[in-house]
Specification:
With 238 residues, the protein is an alpha+beta fold. 16% of the residues lie in helices and 35% in strands. It is built from 4 helices and 15 strands. The strands form 3 sheets. Strands 1, 2, 3, 4, 5, 6 and 7 form a 7-stranded antiparallel beta sheet that branches.
Length: 238
């Protein structure tokens, strides 16, 4: 692993990234140990430049692969997460997730066996690898076009007990999902968003602001394509 300055990374980017957008990956990481393991000082990015809170960013090279690491500058949890940006594999035999095998040179504090999100280039995924949450909703970790692609990723995850609950299922229904006030369909608190899991997560977080179990938020599709209504109270999907 060769660590670079921002200017060195920018000079290499056209040759290593080409004209394509880099792949986005998020994995669990020990963000307190990360600065100790990286010999270069991070670039500090303030909220004035876009992120909601200050973040640290490092640049590195693994053989001919450019890697950008980003994590929050301050976090309440020791084991948080790090975002990785790198180039997509040209011909991934097992799917876009298999780029994780080529990132083994990253510091030990970056846990590649515990991915939270791996971007794929599938435009119409048929299978999704989900990570269930105790609150009742599930996070899509990887969207696959083929069954074997999803299955091989699930096998990769099975090496760590932390991933034991992950499973393969159909993609979540798309729509215009919103969070509704408990009393009225006329007003909504947030939305619309096409990502159901994201709206359910936000609704669970918002419902924790009330300690009254009779207060129920609802998540509904305004497009009418999905008739199901989700009910949330005290941080959980009912």
């Amino acid at each position: 692993m060769e660590w670079l300055t921002q200017s060195e990374a920018l000079a290499l980017a056209p040759a290593l990234f080409g004209n394509t957008q880099p792949q986005a990956i998020t994995v669990q990481a020990d963000t307190e140990l990360l600065p100790v393991e990286i010999p270069k000082q991070p670039r500090m990015i303030s909220p004035d430049e876009g992120p909601p809170s200050e973040v640290k960013e490092w640049y590195g090279r693994i053989k001919d692969r450019l890697v950008v690491l980003r994590c929050m500058a301050k976090t309440r949890e020791k084991h948080s997460s790090v975002e990785i940006k790198t180039g997509f594999l040209q011909h991934p035999a097992l799917g876009d997730w298999s780029v994780l095998h080529e990132l083994q040179g990253l510091p030990s504090s970056v846990n590649l066996r515990r991915p939270l999100f791996v971007e794929s280039r599938s435009k119409q995924p048929c299978y999704v690898v989900f990570r269930p949450q105790v609150q009742g909703w599930k996070i899509p970790v990887y969207k696959a076009e083929y069954w074997q692609e999803a299955r091989s990723f699930l096998e990769f995850l099975s090496a760590d007990e932390w991933n034991r609950g992950c499973f393969i299922a159909d993609p979540e229904p798309t729509g215009r999902w919103v969070i509704l006030h408990a009393e009225s369909d006329a007003e909504y608190i947030m939305g619309p968003s096409s990502e159901l899991w994201c709206v359910l997560k936000t609704a669970c977080d918002m419902s924790l602001l009330s300690d009254d179990p009779s207060t129920v938020l609802r998540v509904k599709d305004l497009s009418g394509a999905n008739s199901q209504i989700f009910r949330i109270s005290l941080g959980r999907l009912l």
